[in-house]
Amino acid sequence: MNRMFAIVEREMRKFFRSPTLMIMSLMMPILQLLIMGNAFGGKIVGAHVAIVDYDHGPQAVKIREGFDSIAVNIKTFTTVEYTDEMKAREDVRTGKVDAAVIIPAQYSRRVYSQDAPQLGFVVDNSDLFTSSSLESEMQSLVTALTAPVIQPRLANSIALEIVELYPYVNYMKFLLPACVALAMYISVMIGGGMLYIDDKARGVHEGYLVTPITKLELVFGMNLAGAIKAVLSGICLTVIGSLLAGLGVIFHPEADLELLCLIVGTSIAFNGMMFLFMVRVEDPLTPRAMFGVLNLLLFYPSGAMYPIAAFPKWLQAIAVIDPFTYCIHGFKAILLKDGGFEAIRFDLLFLFVFGIGTLLIATPLFKRTL
Amino acid sequence: MTTSTQPDSGRLGPAINGNGARSPHTAMAVENIVKRYGSFEAVKGVSFSVADGEIFGLLGPNGAGKSTLIRMMTTLVPITSGKAIVAGYDVAKDPDAVRRVIGVIPQALTSDPDLTVEENLSIYAKLYSVPKAERLKNIADVLEAVDLTKWRTAQTKTLSGGMRRRLEIARGLVHNPHMFFLDEPTTGLDPVSRIAVWEMLDNLRKTRHLTMLLTTHYMEEADKLCDRIAIVDYGNLVALGTPAELKRSVPGANVVEVHFDRETPQWQSRLEDLDGVTSVQAESAGFYRVLTSSGSRTTMQLVELAASLGETLTSLSVQNTTLDDVFVHYTGRQLRDEQVKPAAYTLPPRPGAQP
To answer: Which stretches does DSSP call E strand in chain B?
Structure first.
């Protein structure tokens, strides 16, 4: 047992002596949280919409008033006056404006005579996010314009009353569980993958193998050290990320305990998996080459960025055996929903079973000789 | 070149016959030991024994099988066949017992550069389960022995190459082993550090009564340090004996080095025809090393030969046979392609391809 702790001691002393590892394992997920959280969470503001008015009637004025209201309130877009429809279309195509609204001649007359009035909306749909935001605003405006002035005696539509269970979850909050998992993955990849193979290549393992340390002591010592490093990374990012994203759940002791269990389970699962991948690897370039592939293969199918239900079947199959899936589900359940142990019971079970299982498979593959 | 698995007893005489077998004072021995990687045989049935308190050297060119031999004896590489006995324990059957009594200094510097000198030693002592009080005493003792006491708290990465090698040696001693294995302990060191390591190893042998087995490329190192030397080539033991015995085993007691002003192809045969000359090695243009039974007689003949042919001698010197000559005599002079393991996969021949 003491020999196992000697391995852990060596790894931990190295870890605290080289803060680069700790900083780099946290830096990427924090930057991801800050940059992606802010970049993807916002709404479109300040787009330019060309307006070509061939009508100049009272209903056209109502539309212009609606546009002015958007420009000063929600600020999605401001209008630019055009006199020529062809010129407006060309400017949408060349990106000078984001969309163009065409109010045709006789528009007001058609509204009054209820003769299928139409507005033209030319939009640059190469940018789906901007175009759908502008379309949504225009649709709201048209719906408001078509609302009857005098309400009918019987309701002709049924309202859906939406009750949101949790406070508004912005994109940064949504991204936090993925970033915590990523920080732990990077820590395991560097600490359990790259450094493990580097030590092997430098002959450090040869030094261990000539001592009376047993195979189990060596395997568990290295994995325990790797798990401790990943736990430290996970705790740091959970705290820093929660503060950045404005999540107060970390101030509840019960939630902290649940988060700690998840972090420990994830560390064991990631370490076991990494050890299994690396147990027979000799070339220090291999873990570096595997880093990106594994990240892609494990992170994206996990539901971190997009719901698993929207995946094709083969991708859903990867998600089922991917420890990231359960880690991220668990973190979402605690950080965003405060769901308690009930919500993460299965995630914890999977993570611990997966971690111990992979370690049990890897241990016989570990060679006690060179 | 000798390629048999046993040394040539005819050439080495008592050096082999007297020391090949195990005796009650044997500290370690290998008997007909073989290491095979697939079809490639790295060690081919080598046998020797090392007496208690002896420093035993393994010499050989790159890829000769020295490191494989030492790795088999230190439990790092499984033995394909044959037997290795260290401190009375069978390496294959009782590897843990062997590990407890040996100290190993691998070829590479494997101390952790991020840890201090003391931390490196402490962690290794813990790997050998040395109790705390004994551990502290041992660390102080070995640091004193390798003259690193004042660097105790220094980070290993701040040490010079020579100091790091001394730390490696200290690390191998921190659990008080009886046997010490050193794989090229002075490779990469400057001459001053190398001499310091030799002196330190010699002192350690005396003060700690250690039996040492070391591999080296340096003939001078083997000559100064080792009580006996085994020369390994192509996985075979080709010579074994004390440095003096090995030197005597090479035909020719002296080496005459001669440099002619003008190189001609006839010099080689002319030199070989001189009385007492046993071998002639062409070193570079006009420079020859001549092994002879009588240095003085060959020198005179050389001067007379040059004068009769109207040639000029640029330099001429006579010296005793060195281990370099022994090494070249037994292993030859051709460059070797080092091969530790065979290629993992060989492409099969294409159908219809010409052999």
So the answer is: 26-37, 40-51, 55-59, 81-86, 89-90, 102-105, 179-183, 211-216, 228-233, 236-241, 254-260, 277-284, 287-292, 313-320
A10 touches chain B (CB under 8 A): yes
- Can you tell me the distance from the alpha carbon of A194 to that of A185, in angstroms, rounded to the nearest whole number? 12
The listed CATH number (3.30.1360.30, 3.40.50.300, 2.30.42.10, 3.40.50.720) that belongs to domain B9-248: 3.40.50.300
Q: pLDDT digit string (tens) for B129-142?
A: 999 999 999 999 99
Helices (H), A149-194: 171-188
Q: Where is A82: in which H helix or E strand?
A: strand A77-82
Question: Which of B100, B104, B129 lies closest to A3 in CB terms?
Answer: B129
Q: What is the CATH number of domain B250-331?
A: 3.30.70
pLDDT of residue A102: 94
Query: ipTM of the predicted structure?
Result: 0.76
At residue A301's C-alpha, the angle toward residues A197 and A282, to 5°, is: 15
Q: Kindly report the pTM of this predicted structure.
A: 0.78
Average pLDDT over residues B6-20: 36
Domains along the sequence of chain A with CATH:
2-39+167-365 (no CATH), 43-143 (3.40.1710.10)
DSSP A46: S
Residues of B in contact with A10 (CB under 8 A): 112, 115, 119, 123
CA distance B22 to chain A (A): 25
What does the pLDDT look like over B71-89, one tens digit per residue?
A: 999 999 999 999 999 999 9
pLDDT of B346 strictly over 50: no
pLDDT confidence bin for B5, thresholds 50/70/90 = very low
| A155-202 confidence digits (pLDDT tens) | 666 777 778 787 778 888 998 999 999 999 999 998 888 888 888 888
Are A229 and A187 contacting, i.e. CB atoms less than 8 angstroms apart?
yes
* A220-234 per-residue burial string, b: 16 or more CB within 10 A, e: under 16: bbbbbbbbbbbbbbb
- Sheet of B89-90: strands edge to edge? B40-51, B26-37, B81-86, B89-90
Q: What is the CA radius of gyration of chain A?
A: 29
Neighbours of B349 (CB within 10 A): 9
Residue A96 has a pLDDT of: 93
Q: Which two tokens stand for residue B64?
A: 């000769």
3-state SS assignment for residue A21: helix
**Which of B123, B128, B175 should we substitute to test contact with A (largest number of A Cβ atoms within 10 Å)?**
B123
